[in-house]
Design goal:
This protein has helices spanning about 10-15, 25-40; strands at about 55, 65-70, 70-75. It has one domain: YaeB-like fold (2-Layer Sandwich). Strand 1 and strand 2 (about 65-70) form a beta hairpin. It is globular. It is α+β, with helices and mostly antiparallel strands. The longest helix has 13 residues, at about 25-40.
Length: about 80
């Protein structure tokens, strides 16, 4: 379950379907990612073709990343597990 957002555009898209603040060519993929993340309980729930799931390192250790497009990513973490 998604608990919060740092980026206001993602929050508005998830909560209200408002697309302001996000690139139009990425909306569909972001919506798919958020839907999967909202139901995920563990990293393997998100390891789908095209998402390119991977754990982050360094000061972002404990976070995971999925690819939206090129250098655009959605970064998240699981509170438990």
């Amino acid at each position: 379950m998604i608990r919060g957002f740092r980026q206001k555009g993602l929050k508005r898209l998830f909560e209200n379907g408002e697309r302001k603040g996000l690139r139009a060519d990425q909306i569909e993929k972001i919506e798919n990612i958020l839907a999967v993340l909202n139901h995920a309980r563990k990293p393997s729930d998100i390891d789908l073709p095209g998402f390119r799931l991977h754990p982050l390192k360094g000061n972002l250790r404990g976070f995971w990343s999925v690819t939206v497009q090129a250098n655009w990513r959605v970064i998240f973490r699981f509170e438990q597990g």
